[in-house]
Amino acid sequence: MMHDFPLRTMTSVQGGKALNKPITLLWLLGQYHLSRITDFHFVELEKVVGSIIEDYTGILNIVDPFWRLQNDGILFFPLAENMQIQSTGRPAVRDFREYGHAFFTEQFLNFISESNNLTKYCESLLLEFFPGSYDDDVLERTGLLEERDDHVRRIIQISRRPRNPLFRSKIIDAYNSRCAICGFQLFMGGSLIANEAAHIKWHNSMGPDTVQNGLLLCNLHHKLFDCGVYTLSDDYTLSVSKKVPEDSESVKRWILDYKNRPILLPQDPLLYPGREFLSWHRKYVFKN
Fold first, then answer.
1. Residue 219: is it exposed, middle or buried by C-beta count within 10 angstroms (0-12/13-18/19+)?
2. Does residue 148 share a domain with residue 174?
3. 107/39 same-domain check
4. How high is the pLDDT of residue 36?
5. pTM of the model
6. Which of 42, 85, 84, 92 is nearest to 66 (CA)?
7. How many domains does one find in the chain?
8. Beta carbons of 63 and 94 less than 8 angstroms apart
9. Band of pLDDT at residue 244, cut at 50, 70 and 90
10. Rounded to whole angstroms, how far apart are CA atoms 220 and 253?
11. Using CA atoms, how far apart are residues 83 and 14, in angstroms rounded to an integer?
C-alpha cells in the first residue's frame, strides 16, 4: 500500500528513519477520518502536531514534514508563490504561518476515499516507520483511535509480521530469562511471562535479529526503551532522559533507581549489546 504514495527522504544516515513526516501525515489522515477535513493551515498544526513530533523525536520541527509532503504527491500549497524559499528548501516560519495553507491533492484524496485504502495506508505507515510498542499511542494521538460509549475502537487493525522465534529464544538464553534492567522473571506453566526480546536498533530500521542487537526486557522496560525514556551507555550503564519527571514515586522505583547502574549482562562477553546498536539508539530514539 505504501508504494501508491511512498514517503521520500525519510531514511537518515545509519538506517535511522525520521518520524516527523509519518507523524504529520497520520495526524492529517486522522483529521480526514474524523471530520473529512481536506485542507490544513500551518498555524493549526504548529502546536498540536509539533508537540507530538517533539515527544517522539526530541526535536520540534513541523515546517519540514508539512512542506515536504508536496514532494510525495499528498499536499499542494496554492499560496506557495507568496512565500520566500530559504536555502534549506523550505519557507521561513513567518511566511508559513501566513501562507502555509495546504490541500490534499486530487489524486491522494481519490486514493484515500476508496474502500479500505485509508486504513490500509495508515497501517502501512505504522509498519514502515514505528515499532509495535508505539501502535496504540500513535493512533490515539493522531485521532485514529475512537472512543465511543467508554469503548475504545481501533480504526486501524495492524497485522505485524511475527518476529523470528530463534531471535527470542537466543535472547532468553543469553539473559537467563531475566529482564536486563530489573531482573524480573516469571514462569507459568513452563512459559516465560511478560519478558520480551527487544531490538536495540529497530527491526524496521534494518536492525538485525542477532543477540548483540537485542535485550531481554519486561514489557514495561521494553516500552520505555522503545520510547526513549532511557538508553544504555557504552559501559552498559543506564542513562535516563532529562525529560523524565523526578517527582513520581513509581518513576523513581522503575526508572530513576536504575540510573547509572549496569544492566544484567549475558555471561558470554561476545553476546553483550553491540556498541554500534547502542549508538544508534542514543542518536535516534533516546529523548535527551
1. middle
2. no
3. yes
4. 92
5. 0.72
6. 42
7. 2
8. no
9. very high
10. 12
11. 34
Q: Do 148 and 26 have their domain in common?
A: yes
Task: Look at phi and psi of residue 97 and say left if phi exceeds 0, alpha if psi is from -120 to 50, else beta.
Answer: alpha
Burial of 250 by CB count in 10 Å (0-12 exposed, 13-18 middle, 19+ buried)? exposed
Is 227 within the bounds of a domain?
yes
Report for 15-29, 59-73, 213-227: range of highest mean pLDDT: 213-227
Strand pairing class (101-104; 191-192)? unpaired
Say whether both 150 and 171 belong to one domain. no
* Res. 176 pLDDT band, cuts 50 70 90: very high
* Residue 1 · residue 8 · CB < 8 Å: no
Same domain, 29 and 134: yes
Question: Of 19 and 211, which is predicted with more confidence?
Answer: 211
Task: Pick the most confident of 155-164, 202-211, 256-265.
Answer: 256-265
The neighbour count for residue 237, using CB atoms within 10 Å, is: 13
Residue type, 87: S
